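Researcher: For the record, we're logging two predictions in this thread. I'll number them. Prediction 1 follows.
Model: Prediction 1, sequence and structure:
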Amino acid sequence: MLYLLVQVNESIKCVISERIVSIESTVNKFCDLFNAVIAEQYNNREVQVFVRREKSESWREVDNGLNSDLKILEVFGFLQQTFISSMSN
């Protein structure tokens, strides 16, 4: 089981503030994590994924976004994620 800090933003507006989320090991993509955190109202929007180890670090964009494997969190020790949705559908 992964324990993560997750936040969701729409452009510069915070939609879901930072919260602790636990995810079963059967969840293996960032889209699975995103769907577990946010309602379906954002499913049709373009979403960028960013990760970091701690608040003092800069956010790092995940190249493959929602389609990337959550395994990178464990491999690189990232515990914080933010999802940024564009405002246009």
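Researcher: Logged. Prediction 2.
Model: Prediction 2, sequence and structure:
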Amino acid sequence: MRSLRFASAEALVSHPQVALQSLDSVAYNLYPLLFKAGYLLERAEVVRALLGRWPLEEFRLGALLGPSADHEADLRDRACRACLEACVRGLAEHVLQGGGRRRLQLADLTGVQDVQVQQCPCGRALGRWGRTELLARTCCELQVSPQAARRPVKVLTDLFVTEGNFQVVVRALGPAGPAPLQVHCLSFRADSLGPDQLLQVLRLTGPSDLRRLQVVHNVRLHAGHVQQLLAQVRFPRLASLTLPAKAFDAPPGCTPVTDGEDPLLTSIAWELSQMTQLTELSVAFSTLTGKIQRLLGPLRTPLRVLDLANCSLNHADMAFLADGAHAAHLEVLDLSGHSLVHLFPSTFSRLLGRGARTLRSLTLEECGIEDSHVSMLAVALGPCHQLQELRLLGNPLSGLALRRLFRALCDLPRLRLVEFPVPKDCYPEGSAYPQDELAMSRYDQQKYDTIAEGLRRVLVRAGRDDIQVCTPVFGSFDPDIQETSSELGAFLLQAFRTALENFSRALKQME
């Protein structure tokens, strides 16, 4: 539904030349309406002109694109390349203006969501990495402009930094002279960077503003790097932290711990305890056997999101999770890669029981859940009435067992998404679990379709056709990886080449 005001705004921006000639006569409070109309219709020239003449003290992209009384559509999932480039170019033109026309003090460029299918007319997206590079290059251009405005504009943004845009981001964040656009980072993602590069760029981001830090994939950190990063940079407002695989491994040459004490882990835990707003922690693929209490125990705030996938947890770790303070606050939990219902059946049930009032998303991929475990799993999930998402990929369950599980899931009133594994009936008899990607992709598609249709009928008969079911064999869409796949592929190839050279050198030394 749209108001008459919004229909009028659409009519105006539909004729860009008329709109551009009329902007000086438009009331200031209509600029937000014209902006959303211009974004909706992809009138990039109008969007750019609006930012160039923005008459208000604040510009908040996410709020302007969200639902409103004049237009209820949510445009925040449109990362339209043409419009986002127009926003940044218009912002650059704005700060170069002199005189009393300039009132803008804050430009918040966050709030755009990256999705797989773009709904904007051009269908071309500008992802987080591209937005980072565009803003950084614009900042660098303005820094050398003789027309640089004296009163800077504060820009709130989300940064995605890799080797490919590292240098331009560093120049943008650490200008040698005046900076008409002063970048303040709220969310930071790093990939394919060295530890020293990561430390350098994070020091420049204004870590006091940072709310979310994701260090992923091809950033090779060990426990010494993590301790140095947290101790030297400081993140007082950090709410979410993601560390890469093996981030808690001991540094090379470090003397193995024999008495149970781990100074590096103790120091990391203390640094985390100083982050009084930390509620989300992802440390997947780090070996943390027997260390969970030491890592999570000192935290001052209960965690709402916890990812411990493939962390080799033992009985003591599971007992701490089930009985500790975090259990009753968890909303998102990932325990993939652990034989939960086989090794820790009672502890796992106790954990779900304590988290039942808050748990919204549960991921149990490659947990060795078999047909004989379905009844126990159904009972453990029974109290989880807030559960909205359940992911079970990679577990050796038959079609018959999945039907039994689905009947139980129908009793969870808020459940909306189930990712279920390819039934083991669809693979050759005796297939091993967990499977590699090649084996995972070789299944009987016709048999799968028949079983999947049967599972959907179970939901329909129970009146639960509101539950979406799927089997994303190769994982869900990741816009960040999609955008930088070429660069990351080259990074991995170089890493492989370096490993081969080191191996060859070691062989020669042995000769």
